[in-house]
Amino acid sequence: VDAMNTLQEIRMYSGSIQRDFEPLEMLTIADMYKTVRINLNQLYEYLPQKEKEKYYGYFVQVTEYEKKVADGTYNPDVDGVLKFD
């Protein structure tokens, strides 16, 4: 529930800004997102092993995407978009 509430807060906060983000606003959103990731990781740890195995691939894909974005190397034309088929 905490993760979903924080995602909602991110949506509302970012949606209230009708211009390019300022550095402090980007840091605020990044901190909020970090909280979501921590909460989701805690939830993941409670899953049975079979379910952990099921969702591990999603974790890896999202982490790789985030690293590319953070490094400035993500290119949607080359990397495509995340698909969880």
Question: What's the arrangement of secondary structure elements?
Answer:
Blueprint lengths: L1 H14 L7 H23 L3 H23 L4 H4 L6
In short:
The protein is mainly alpha-helical. Helix content is 75%, strand content 0%. The chain has helices at residues 2-15, 23-45, 49-71, 76-79.
Describe the structure.
The protein is mainly alpha-helical and 85 residues long. The chain has four helices and no strands. The protein has helices at 2-15, 23-45, 49-71, 76-79. α1 runs antiparallel to α2. The longest helix has 23 residues, at 23-45. It is globular and about 45 Å long.
Helix content: over 70%
Number of strands: 0
The low-pLDDT segments are none
Q: Pairing-aware structural class of the strands and helices?
A: mainly alpha
**Separation, N- and C-terminal Cα atoms:** 25 Å
What would you call the shape? globular
Output the helix-strand order: HHHH
Pick out its properties.
single chain, 85 residues, mainly alpha, globular
